[in-house]
Amino acid sequence: MIYNITLEDMEFKAYHGCYDLEKMVGNRYQVSVSMDAELDEAAQADDVAKTINYLKVYDIIEGCMKQKSDILENVVLRITDAMYAEFKQLKRVSVTVSKLAPPLGGKVRKASVTLCR
């Protein structure tokens, strides 16, 4: 069976952006990840070592967010690649990275990029 694990609205300060000011002062970002995985063995054994550990997911995303990128597309790709590299049980991953209050010259709550693979 396929199980879905979702971590929503993790918040980070990061230094992504194509403008020099964004790279210097940073911005607030939200990251959500949804993962479909074959986890029958973990569920039946009630064994955290056989499932997708939420703390490990958070740590991977935190590490990816620390690496500067000019565009959010690069950030979501990096996170997606890292998830597949770490968790062999994965069948599908969806990652959304949102820049909160992006500097677009007007009031915008957030700008987001999502990658599903």
Structural summary, described in words:
The chain is of the alpha+beta class. 34% of the residues lie in helices and 37% in strands. It has helices at residues 20-25, 40-45, 54-66, 72-86, and strands spanning 2-14, 27-38, 90-100, 110-116. It has a 4-stranded antiparallel beta sheet. Helix 3 (54-66) runs antiparallel to helix 4 (72-86). The two termini are 19 Å apart. The model has no long low-confidence stretch (mean pLDDT 96).
Write the layout of secondary structure elements.
Layout: E1 2-14, H1 20-25, E2 27-38, H2 40-45, H3 54-66, H4 72-86, E3 90-100, E4 110-116
Antiparallel strand pairs: 1-2, 2-3, 3-4
Q: What's the count of strands?
A: 4
CATH class: Alpha Beta
Briefly note the structural class of the backbone.
alpha+beta
Shape: elongated
- Main sheet overview: 4 strands, antiparallel
